[in-house]
Amino acid sequence: MNANTLPPGLKNADLMARRAAALPRGVGQAHALFAARAKNAEVWDVEGRRFIDFVAGIAVVNTGHGHPQVIAAAQAQIPQFSHTCFQVVAYDGYVRLAERLNALAPGDAPKKTFFVSTGAEAVENAIKIARAHTGRPGVIAFNGGFHGRTLLALGLTGKVDPYKLGVGPFPAEIFHAPFPDALHGVSVDDAIAGIEMLFKTDIEPKRVAAFIVEPVQGEGGYLPAPKAFLERLRALADKHGILLIADEIQTGAARTGKMFAIEHSGVAPDLITMAKGLGGGFPIAAVIGRADVMDGLAPGGLGSTYAGSPMACAAALAVLDVIEAEGLCERAIEIGAHMQRRLRELAAHQRCIGDVRGLGAMVAVEFFHDGDAKRPAADLARAVIAEAHRRGLLLLSCGSYGNVLRLMVPLTIEQTILDEGLDILAASLDAVVAHA
Ligand SMILES: Cc1ncc(COP(=O)(O)O)c(C=O)c1O
Fold it and tell me: Which residue, by CA, sits nearest to atom 16 of ligand 1?
């Protein structure tokens, strides 16, 4: 249903009530809004109210809502065929997309790629591939990491509330090590020592198939992994014959100023998971990896009915074209630098801002009570989000303590709208602090 066919007089509150009656409460919702239409970095709700979108469907529409090239590519595919199941009758768009990603992925080794539909599915498959290649069961993930909501992905996820509550047990042979977070007292040395400790207390390295790491933790607080950490993880992996999986589901597709965030470190992973920004709003996820590793499973071991849908492949090819033609990697760097500059100006007179950080256009503001890192201020983050909503700006929180605002604007955002959104954010924070 689009804005032209919506019944008149629809109200968010009525739809929220119907939603509550019809859906399980486990399907959360950050904003009590129902969308009518969206264009680039703006969303209009069913009541006709306009919002600036600093969430981008959780870092999905990196190319903006409804990029004409992406929409045209998907539309052109539909009348040709919308489904054959690639494993039954193949199509060229899938292969072309795999070739493009193989060429873009970091590292000199030849690559292979295949597609699934969601991030969690990509993670599950990356682990299967790593286990099949190494013949080992163990996987080491990191505290605060997020890898999805299916049971294996959830086992890898390093945050209990709300994701893991009441749904265990989780698959065996998964272990968590500390993720470096200087602000909360975890150095790179501590993080590496944590892995060495796992090797003593839980699993010997020769039974570990893979490390899985987000180059910038997303849900965990928009925490960039220090270059030294990724280098030492690579060295540990090489020493023990362990594979390194970069979960680029949130960080990929130009979000951080490179096609893949791990490129900033110069480290080449063995496997990469990618989703979100790749499809520009169409559901597609990829596992990209060293060809020798990717071929570990027998024919039939990979795939699913809808995996790599023809429309999503067409859209993703257009997304890659748009990233290149519109210089979105460069734009992500500019956007991130501009946002951090504006946020630091705010921090100069707001003690509650304990940190401003980011990599490219993955930008975070972390709140503390009285600037004390031992007192994370989730209440403040919640209040700022609510106030900004009232003023027409969509924001989202993250972090192990829920006290971080994560800003992930479309990389195609107009400068005036970016500044209008930042003005609303500043005014919202002023209003919240004034009434605290
Ligand atoms: C780093 C990371 N991995 C995996 C996932 C899971 O992706 P999906 O929600 O598409 O299953 C997410 C989703 O937020 C993510 O950010």
Answer: 250
Asked if residue 251 has its Cβ within 6 Å of ligand 1, the reply is no
Q: Is the CB of 157 under 6 A from ligand 1?
A: no
Residue 389 has a CB neighbour count (10 Å cut-off) of 18
pLDDT grade for 331, boundaries at 50, 70 and 90: very high
Q: What is the 3-state secondary structure (H, E, C) of 174-195?
A: EEEECCCEHHHCECHHHHHHHH
399 Ramachandran zone, left/alpha/beta (phi>0; psi -120 to 50): left
- What is the whole-number distance in angstroms between the Cα of residue 123 and the centre of ligand 1? 8
Q: Does the structure show a pLDDT above 60 at 329? A: yes
**Sequence-ordered list of residues with C-beta below 8 angstroms from that of 64, at least 6 positions apart, any chain:** 39, 40, 41, 410, 411, 412, 413
**What is the per-residue pLDDT for 371?**
84
In this prediction the pTM is 0.97
CA of 153 to the centre of ligand 1 (A): 9
In the structure, what pLDDT confidence band is assigned to residue 224 with cuts at 50, 70 and 90? very high
C-alpha dist (Å) from residue 192 to 140, 179, 228, 268, 434: 12, 9, 10, 18, 43
